[in-house]
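Lab manual, section 2.4: Encoding a predicted structure.

Procedure: take the sequence of the chain (142 residues), apply the prediction step described in section 2.3, and record the output as structure tokens. A sample record is shown.
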Amino acid sequence: ESLLFPTHFFVLPVEERVKTMQRTNGKIPEYYDRELDITNNFAVPISIVNMRILDSLGDDDYCNKRFSIPMFNNNKVGLEGGLFKFPTAEQGKKWKGLSVRYHYRTDVGDYDDGGNAVRKCILSLETDRAGKQSLPLIIYSG
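Recorded output:
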């Protein structure tokens, strides 16, 4: 299933906007952190060694301006007890702490998407045993 992200904060449903505005003391947030609910369906423990955002429509860098991955971008994955520690999930279990940060557009001219378009980005997950896996990230404008 694709993960959906609105182009602007005000495209979100009213209930979600109200809850967010209450959490942020009435300030419009610049970004939205979305926890990823991903299960390891392989028969062995799998570690995610890298996550990155790819553009699906050529290399115009649109997707990298919209998304970031705090866990890997801010070096939160790293040494633990002298060993390099990557997020790992056992067979049938979910990876914990995986998230993607979506940066809302700030005005209509920001990264022009041609009006009411849908844009697809790709979240690439590189693993230690199962190669690269991809998840679509869909940006919608209303």
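Check your result against the sample. The chain has three helices and ten strands.
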